[in-house]
Please model this.
Amino acid sequence: MRDTRESRLLLVLLVAIAFALITVDIRGGEDSPVDGARQAAAGVFGPVEDGVSAAVNPVGNAVSAIRDSGERHDRLARLEQENAALKAKLGSDDRSRSRLKQLDKMLKVAGEGQYGIKGAQVIAIGAAQGFSWTITIDVGADDGIKRDMTVLNGDGLVGRVTTVGSNTATVLLANDPDFTVGTRMESSDELGFASGQGDRPLRVELLNGKAEVKKGDRLVTFGSQADKPFVPGVPVGVVSRVDPSGGGLTRTLYVTPYVGFSKLDIVGVVVQAPTKDPRDTVLPAKPKAKPTPTVTVTVTPGAEVPDGGGQQQQGDAQEQPLAGGLQPRADDLYQYEQEQ
Model:
């Protein structure tokens, strides 16, 4: 349409009519005179609005879904972070409890043996210079650690310090093939030397080839001159096998160490030796022997027992064997015990 004087007058007239209809509709309230026209317009334009809405809504819904999806993703990401933090905290708590248990056990050993120790944590396994059985701990010269100090934990002998840095130190483990320590048998005091064999039991050569040794006997460190590299009384292990004596000058034993060398965490370096040999006081308590169950059988005098032909005779006329080969007599009571 051209922009003419007539078109401008028509636009002004339509605007004036629209304002007049709005004023009449508002003042009429529920009885508005234009209500019929509104309903007629709704009947005509309603289907058109529905069609437009059906065409436009999927787009709007898609936009909303994308927006909501981003919000849900952020929410899920936050939840995953919170769950990860919770799991890490729970794992940390479990590990802390485990370390506290190890530390408590080690302090008990140190107290019983009167060892002055410096606690440390294992931060690496193995050494860069070779394939020996070693660990690296997080204490060094700045903490008073020196070469050839005994290292232990709550179970027993771990090894000895071989290399010292300012803040770390390397420990040669007792199961290393190059490791040797003097040992003493519990109670009998038989002396020997234990050598590492990797993941196999320690090999111990007793100085007395005729020493009486049996499976289950226990060993501790004998101690070195000036307590270096080994202090006395540290638990070493339990005899698992004894080689038959061949009449030699020494006797060979195989000892299962108390320490699990593949799962070390908290250890202690003995920085002060005990004033006297603790002997066997640091060894763990022996397990209590379980009582052997017994069975008691009582034979009553004069009881009738069957003979070979099915006839009944008095118990004082003939003895019949009981289970286990015992022979009861009719004029007395006998008991026997049979291990179950």
